[in-house]
Design goal:
- With about 325 residues, the chain is α/β, with parallel strands linked by helices.
- The protein has 11 helices and 16 strands.
- An 11-stranded mixed β-sheet has the order 1-8-2-3-7-4-6-5-9-10-11, sandwiched between helices.
- The longest helix has 17 residues.
- The protein binds threonylcarbamoyladenylate (TXA) and magnesium ion.
- The site of threonylcarbamoyladenylate has 25 residues, from strand 5 and strand 6.
């Protein structure tokens, strides 16, 4: 695998045009890209990630005329949302154009598409001259990568290249909004906030599981176990979360217990060796969650404990990832 600098976009673009797979930064997480119109190239994404073929892939574009090429129908609402939120962390589900191989959408009639705002992602799509299919650049079920080092940890030797553009700026994936349903439905909360979408679509829905505590049966392609560290993750949501975490540390003295803490929670765990600090606010927690899960895994912990974040703003997306990465304890 080659490690490319942002100045080597043209090399990366050539690899994409030749049917190869290249990891690249977006504002959310690193993606693993291939020419979205080349089924053989897209097949290499599935192989590199060990990703099952029933999990469809988001197509990334750099200009609105590419939207016409990949979607069969572009409703007014899609254009309105594109004006408001693109480039950015919003993925739209639309009817698929026949030009996009059915492998990309896992044979679904619908397609997921977004225009990333990261300058390297934009430059790569433009230089390649084709839309780029890209899931997060991690092994299937592992936490998404927010640095090139995370990509290498999972995929070195399985992909052609990674463009090292430093850490991503949001840290959680895009919001996926299904415009084929009426009213539109958020399938995955993410970087564009529910509050902001409500201003454009007052009756926008959000998939039950993202807000409720109980698990519902997953739809194809929206698999439950995901974003998971190797260690067992417990997320404490009760009012006595800190107490419950302290008790859990005590009860597991014979194990290596890792703690993912907000800066102001640090004082409650003074003698614990395996601590990763997420930062001061929700934004920082979103940015650092996946890096924290990976860092504690690398230190070989058996258990990871964390207090559930506030469930507003980006906290809704954080909660969704935590639910799928571990167990919420109330
Ligand atoms: O921020 C992001 O969205 C990142 C960056 C790289 O753009 N990408 C990303 O891709 O998170 P991935 O593959 O890790 O997650 C995409 C999710 C999957 O859960 C997939 O099932 C869903 O989007 N998805 C993709 N195409 C779909 C479709 N046609 N219908 C419904 N869900 C779809
Ligand atoms: Mg992913």
């Amino acid at each position: 695998m080659q490690i490319l600098s942002p100045a080597e976009i043209e090399t990366a673009a050539q690899i994409i045009r030749a049917g190869g797979v290249v990891a690249f930064p977006t504002e959310t997480v690193y993606g693993l890209g291939a020419n979205a119109l080349d089924a053989k190239a897209v097949e290499r994404i599935f192989a590199a990630k060990n990703r099952p073929h029933n999990d469809p892939i988001i197509v990334h574009i750099a200009a609105l005329d590419q939207l016409q090429a990949v979607a069969a129908v572009v409703p007014d609402l899609a254009n309105q949302l594109a004006t408001q939120f693109w480039p950015g962390a919003l993925t739209l589900i639309l009817k698929r154009s026949n030009k996009v191989p059915s492998l990309v959408t896992a044979k679904l009639p619908n397609l997921a598409v977004r225009m990333p705002s990261h300058p390297i992602a934009q430059a790569l799509i433009r230089a390649a001259g084709v839309p780029i299919a890209a899931p997060s650049a991690n092994l299937f079920t592992r936490p998404s990568p927010t640095t090139a080092a995370h990509v290498m940890e999972d995929l070195a030797d399985r992909i052609d290249a990674v463009i090292d553009g430093g850490a991503t700026t949001i840290g959680l994936e895009s919001t996926i909004l299904d415009l084929t349903q009426s009213p539109p439905m958020i399938l995955r909360p993410g970087g564009v906030l529910l509050e902001d979408l409500r201003r454009v679509i007052p009756d926008v829905q959000i998939r039950e599981r993202a807000l409720a505590m109980d698990e519902i049966a997953p739809a194809p392609g929206m698999l439950e176990k995901h974003y998971a560290p190797r260690a067992t993750l417990f997320v404490f949501a009760g009012d006595d979360a800190i107490d419950a975490m302290q008790r859990t540390v005590e009860k597991n003295r014979q194990k290596k217990v890792g703690l993912l803490l907000m800066n102001d929670e640090r004082e409650h765990f003074t003698h614990q060796p395996y601590i990763f600090l997420l930062g001061d606010d929700l934004q920082a927690a979103a940015l650092n969650l996946f890096a924290g899960l990976r860092a504690l895994d690398q230190r070989g912990v058996d258990l990871i404990l964390m207090r559930a974040p506030q469930r507003t703003g980006i906290g809704i997306a954080l909660w969704d990832r935590l639910q799928r990465a571990g167990t919420i304890i109330t």
